[in-house]
Amino acid sequence: MPYTDVSLNEASEVLELAGFKNILTIEKLNGGWANSNYILTLVGGKKLVLKIWNEQSIEEVNYLLNMTKYIVEKDFPTPKPIKFLDGNYVHNKNGIAWTLLPFINGNWLGTNHSSLYSLGKIQAKLHIIEPPKDLKKEFSMGPKLFNKLYNMANENDQWTDFMKLLKHETEDLLIKIGSLPKGIIHGDLFSDNVLGINNEVVSVLDFEEICYDYLAFDLVMTFVGFGWKNGEPIKERWNSILEGYQTIRVLSEDEIRALPHLHKLATLSIAAWRYWQFVINLPDTDHTDRYLEMTERLNKILPF
Length: 304
Prior knowledge:
The protein is of the alpha+beta class. The protein has helices at residues 8-17, 58-73, 113-127, 143-156, 161-170, 173-177, 215-226, 235-245, 253-281, 292-295, and strands at 23-28, 36-42, 47-53, 91-93, 96-102, 107-108, 182-185, 194-197, 200-204, 211-214, 228-229, 232-233. Helix content is 41%, strand content 17%. A hairpin with a 2-residue loop joins strand 8 and strand 9 (200-204). The radius of gyration is 20 Å and the shape is globular.
């Protein structure tokens, strides 16, 4: 769902600012609901990704790129942003951030045991990285977004069934979760954010939700993204993710106890973001009811 159409000439101009020439083709890249993404192929076969950040400010993008560079330096597998000739990693085009990334070969990661075991290990490697001092402390799709939706509901006197459900289900959720280990979390490890080859993760993409939060929350968010089929949780998928994860980092008893509450919070976070994006921000698309996929999961029996 690109929000910015880019011509071959425009792409060529941006590439030249980073020292690249001889663009051959430009094609839209699938995935991403808040950005425009394109694959740029140069003469000789080299490929780059052009990312246009339609919903983040220049300041926000610079922050995210700094976080990305930090974890790349810690040997975490994610594309390192490409620097422009002026020394910046962001090209400001009419107030919108344009960035370039290396293109990573691979397919969306599958859901077989080996793939999910690999994903669990990679996620645990992220979780043991020492967080940088300027890492944000608030998950953008969590209570911050909930409160934004509540304020809008009050202002417009539009407390829909979903808004009432969200408030009711989350009022004491954080109290139930309690105090748990925190660190760097990705926050959105869904299938369109992980590339794999031969049942192994080769790259994790899109760290737009990166922040300092509950590590076990991030783990169950991955189960929200990878662990369900036809509206039902698949126990074997959870076991595969957890088995890989615990080869590097073992969950504490408190984390295990909190898993159902964390899963509810993760599920409602995705539902809230989809409600915001497709009911309020971009209404009247084919995805208007997409948040219901999450709300329908709330009463299912979980494998933990």
